[in-house]
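Model it.
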Amino acid sequence: MPGLFGFREAPIVLRACRRLRARPDVLVCDGQGIAHPRRFGLACHLGYCLDLPTVGCAKSRLAGEHGPVAARRGSWSWLRDGSERLGVVLRTRDAVRPVYVSPGWAIGFRDARALVLGTSAGYRLPEPTRRANLLVNALRRGEPTPPPAPPAPASGRAAPASGP
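Modeled.
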């Protein structure tokens, strides 16, 4: 049922997070944050339960309207419901469909946008989401799993963006 994705997925992700050896600094979720009909998508749900900054980065729009987004990587437009800002529609790769980025918990629009753009070099989706999709698809096909990603350099965090 549209709009209830978090209730299905959050318990699974929460169990997985409890098994992590190190607490992440932030979670980028393959779903909505506040850009949700009830203003509480998967990223909000997880962030609240974990008390951890979260960002929603979705492939499709559940709520709001937006203007055109230029074809160049980094271009964006506000996603709004009337005068309320829900997130941004962000082009992460030249001439490829944009993604819908919205704050989930304890993060603002600017940092959410910068984080998604900074982790999407060369692909439409953020690298953590892309690699998770590759792993799941390989497992479904019964193939060997892809090798883990190399560790990020110590300075690998996306810097906060300037502007709104």
